[in-house]
Design brief:
single chain; 399 residues; alpha+beta; 10-stranded mixed sheet; two-stranded antiparallel ribbon; 12 strands; 15% strand; globular
Length: 399
């Protein structure tokens, strides 16, 4: 009996050691990150059921700018910007008779900067923006109602519009997210949205947008042709290597950037990873049996390709252009780039703040995006002009 007890104890210890070894192996096999440079950001927010990533990322970027220049950490109201932007977009849509343009809840980082410059900004407490019994944004209903309103208006066959249609449209948004404040109190002092921006020291002229495509000449500006760039904001066109230089120089210099990107690739996961493995050769890449690989679901293949560091595609300028032209690269998400890290193999990744909350995210709302993914799937970046290398500014004629 004693021998049996001793044998059982030995087996238990062996099993525990084996379990620890397996756990250690699994951990080692996954992604392990070491932060190289992390510039200050504000807390991660949750856009929830609203197509307002452009606003969350844009304001997150401006919050970091205020943190960088004034040392003030604040939370700016997304719905103040959304309210102004949706009214502007509706006005443009109606002026175009609903043709050749779109009214949609999406937007562009420039919409945030335009609002800042022309209407101002306000803190979150001055306009929380939720009046429908929820704790997080949910625009499923208001998006449908406002779209139906505009489609009915432009498709009505009217010869003349009444002068009150804007009031009617704005009242819909006001009912869901509240009226925009004309004044508010912040830390004991009264401001208007415009005077608040002046207090924060933010100026539109300080920010530059960059992209990298070959259908327009390099070192010139053009409006990137995506539906949500409805204001036709101009971006400076750089060769890919110089676009990456701007990103690296900004991080190294203590700056963050607003990032317009495509997150539809198999390598961009809900678990905080953005990588560019060669999905067409997934079986070879992961060492899987081809028959087993072909029998996997799309979800399982994604899991296999993103559970640990794998070799990635070498991205070229031509690949970027092809993906843009054939709709593989879409302008579908906005985030904030703020740092750089390396994995256990020394490969570099950009640290990106997302707006999908922290509850279901492995890295609490932070994504680690490889250089290959960044080079391939960046639509544009917006950054303070002081962060840009001087030789690139000179090529663009910017002082």
């Amino acid at each position: 009996m004693k021998k049996i007890v001793i044998l059982a104890a030995v087996c238990a210890l062996a099993f525990h050691a084996k379990a620890q070894e397996t756990e250690k192996a699994d951990t080692t096999e996954g992604f392990q990150f070491e932060v190289i440079k992390s510039n200050p950001i504000t807390s991660v927010k949750n856009q929830n059921r609203s197509s307002t990533c452009w606003c969350f990322s844009g304001l997150s970027f401006l919050e970091s700018e205020v943190l960088r220049t004034k040392g003030i950490e604040l939370d700016l109201s997304e719905m103040f910007v959304v309210s102004h932007t949706m009214m502007d977009r509706a006005t443009y849509f109606v002026r175009q008779y609903g043709e050749g343009t779109s009214y949609a809840p999406g937007g562009n980082i420039y919409d945030v900067i335009y609002c800042m410059e022309n209407y101002g900004l306000c803190p979150q407490e001055a306009m929380p923006g939720i009046l429908y019994g929820d704790t997080l944004p949910n625009h499923n209903e208001v998006d449908k109602v406002t779209s139906a309103f505009l489609n009915a208006l432009t498709g009505s066959g009217l010869k003349k519009l009444s002068p009150v249609w804007k009031n009617a449209f704005q009242s819909i948004w006001d009912a869901y997210i509240g009226q925009r404040p004309e004044t508010f109190v912040y830390e004991g002092k009264e401001y208007t949205p415009q005077s608040f921006v002046k207090y924060l020291g933010l100026k539109e002229d300080d920010y530059i947008t960059f992209t990298s495509y070959t259908h327009h000449p390099f070192y010139k500006s053009f409006a990137v042709e995506v539906p949500d760039n409805w204001r036709m904001h101009q971006a400076y066109n750089l060769p890919l290597d110089e676009l990456m230089r701007v990103i690296d120089a900004a991080i190294d210099g203590g700056y963050t950037m607003a990032w317009g990107a495509d997150v539809s690739e198999v390598g961009f996961t809900r678990k905080g990873i953005g990588v560019m493995p060669d999905a067409d050769h997934g079986a070879d890449l992961t060492g899987s049996d081809m028959a087993k690989w072909l029998g996997m679901s799309e979800i399982d293949r994604r899991e296999e390709l993103t559970k640990k560091p794998l070799p990635e595609l070498e991205i070229t300028q031509e690949m970027r252009q092809k993906a843009y032209d054939n709709w593989e690269t879409q302008d579908d998400h906005g985030m904030q780039i703020f740092g750089i890290a390396k994995d256990q193999n020394g490969k570099l990744y950009y640290m990106v703040k997302n707006s999908w909350g922290t509850q279901k995210s492995k890295y609490k709302g932070i994504w680690y995006v490889s250089r290959s993914y960044m080079a391939y799937k960046t639509n544009d970046i917006t950054v303070h002009k002081s962060a840009v290398p001087k030789d690139i500014l000179k090529k663009l004629g910017i002082k």
